[in-house]
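Friendly challenge for the regulars: who can give me the structure tokens for this chain first? No prize, just bragging rights.
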Amino acid sequence: MQRNALKQDFPLVEPSVGAVRHRVRSFCAAIGCPAHAVDAARLIASELATNAVRHAQGRASRAEFTLIVTLDGGKLDIAVWDYYPSPCPSLSNLADIPAEAQCGRGLAMVCADAAGFTWTRTPVGKLVSAWIHVGETTTRRPDPTQVHLF
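First reply, four minutes later:
Bragging rights claimed.
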């Protein structure tokens, strides 16, 4: 892969979430992302990896997930591919999750920090992706009902 891209497989186990955060931080630092972008990228990657571990573990056709991070111009894309073709929850319901909820807030947090979000389901798994703009001091907060689903 090119210098501005990272692709790495991780086992579908909880310690992988911390490893993902560390790897994203290292990658973002190496390509010169500003601190606010590093923080947002780490949070997004952590939430996407957590969802893969929670929902695909024991069900996926492979006991791993793939982290893919790319920088194209000022757009940093953070994606997780797992090998379990489960559906993504309805994003229109994310706004209804109480702030004090102990679970179910991960995608809402991703949508709050991301400039955009997509997911693609295939017979062999799903790719969940969110992106931020690294040149901005704040990210645009998308309306969860306007998120693009493919």
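The helical segments are 15-30, 35-56, 106-113. The CA atoms of residues 17 and 46 lie 6 Å apart. Your move, everyone else.
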